[in-house]
């Protein structure tokens, strides 16, 4: 239903999977601030909405979504590490 473009169906998917996506983001980012995990989760759901047509119905949606959450969290950690590495160099 959500693949067909139903906003209500996608809202139901968000309600069903949001807590898991936030938890994956929180655990991987090792961030004490839940706001970062929420931001990552929001980005994952925006990405999922935009790419839902490419989702194969023969796959498990939760696995696809949680893999995306893991990848987005890992990418966010890399960006934060790079920013932390650049900041001390800039102050020299």
């Amino acid at each position: 239903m959500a693949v067909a473009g139903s906003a209500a169906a996608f809202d139901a998917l968000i309600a069903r999977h949001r807590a898991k996506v936030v938890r994956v983001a929180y655990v991987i980012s090792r961030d004490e601030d839940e706001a970062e995990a929420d931001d990552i989760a929001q980005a994952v759901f925006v990405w999922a909405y935009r790419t839902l047509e490419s989702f194969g119905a023969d796959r498990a949606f939760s696995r696809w979504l949680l893999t995306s959450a893991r990848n987005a969290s890992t990418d966010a950690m890399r960006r934060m590490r790079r920013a932390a590495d650049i900041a001390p160099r800039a102050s020299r």
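Residues 7-90 form a domain with the Rna Polymerase Sigma Factor; Chain: A fold (CATH 1.10.1740.10). The chain has a mean pLDDT of 84.
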